[in-house]
Amino acid sequence: MNRTLKFILIALVGLIVLGGILTATGVTRKVMFMGFVAFKSPEGDFDPGDAVTAPDYSDPANWAALPGKSDPADLVPAGVGAVDVQGRAPADVFFIHPTGYLSGANWTSPMNPDSASEENTQWMMANQASAFNGCCNVYAPRYREASIFAYFKEPEIRDAVLGFAYADVARAFEYFLERYSQNRPFVLASHSQGTHHLKRLLAERIDGTPLRDRMVAAYAIGSVMLEWSPSYFDALATVKPCRTAADTGCVVHWDTFAEGAEGIERVEGSLCTNPLTWRVDEARAPAELNLGALPVRIPYNLDFSESNPPAGVRFDGLDAPLPGRTWAQCRNGTLFVADQGDWATGMAARTGNYHGLDYALFYMNIRENSQLRVDTWLENPARP
Asked: Over the chain, what is the mean pLDDT?
């Protein structure tokens, strides 16, 4: 088939299927989604040899955020009045971004700087990583992330592609430690695919090592498909869930769903931290504790085509936060919040899955809490 014609057909079918998924319910939606995935997924088996050259982390171009350059992670919401501490903060954050590569052209991102995938990485820096620029110098590596379609394949394919992507993250973390961190305390933070990589990084590189004493906290947010189960933490020697707002050396995690949604079925329970109280319980925290949700000014680039073109947007500002946006309550390992109506946009949000709002709904709480934990660590740097 002519490649241009194939692109056109994919775009048309994608629009038809996505439109149907948005209006369908239950089994119908699942069947339509499975058909969409089958049509759009990369062809053939995953072959690491087909991936682009591994990123060189001595090159600043392979970092989506660095303290020494201007990037969207430097943005501060309007009216917050925070001081730019990049390059001067006493602590660092190593941020692992989620999936921005939504194309089925390859199993892993080709890291094209002129693409929808790159725009999505910029979106993540602006709307997620920026929450930590008040406490920390922000470091966020680009990496050969797994395509979104890897998540809907057989576990052995999914795990192989994620394992390949993780190898980049692990190399970036080593470079961060050797060249950037200079023995400062650090925060680890992530979302979605990034949280899957962080889960492995905690087990392989942090737990039971001197790095655990330097880790302020791990904001491992929005894991969705991979649970943070009791057995995972039981297998770790020194890394455990945070229990209070000021605990250090520990992990917080939540997956956000609208009240009335089904939530996530778990084989085991999964860690659910309430970001309005920072406790692990099922008490309902009132909206008055929500310090401010961040309006998402520019939508995520949901381009599934093989060509993966950018929309040509610029991330040059953040709107003022909205205090009291929602209450929050953990139930059975899922964080439930008030239905956000039209404020929650996107295909998943319309089914009650607020994965894309895991950071946005609690942006100012994350910003304040990360500062609190850094301050607590600095007051008592001799960790147990």
From this structure: 89
Mean pLDDT of 58-68: 97
Q: What is the pTM (predicted TM-score) of this model?
A: 0.91
| Residue with more model confidence, 129 or 381 | 129
Q: What residues contact 214, with CB distance under 8 A and at least 6 apart?
A: 183, 184, 185, 186, 383
**At residue 44, what is the residue type?**
G
Q: Edge-to-edge, what's the strand order for the sheet holding 256-258?
A: 256-258, 334-337, 328-331
Measured in whole angstroms, the distance separating CA 18 from the mean position of its chain's CA atoms is 23
**Structure tokens given for 200:** 């492995």
Q: Is residue 101 exposed (0-12), middle (13-18) or buried (19+ Cβ within 10 Å)?
A: buried
Within 10 angstroms of residue 203's Cβ, the number of other Cβ atoms is 14
Q: What is the pLDDT of residues 226-276, one digit of tens each?
A: 899 999 999 999 999 999 999 999 999 999 999 999 888 888 899 999 999
CB 217 within 8 A of CB 374: no
Helix 155-175 vs helix 193-201: crossing angle, to nearest 10: 70
DSSP 358: T
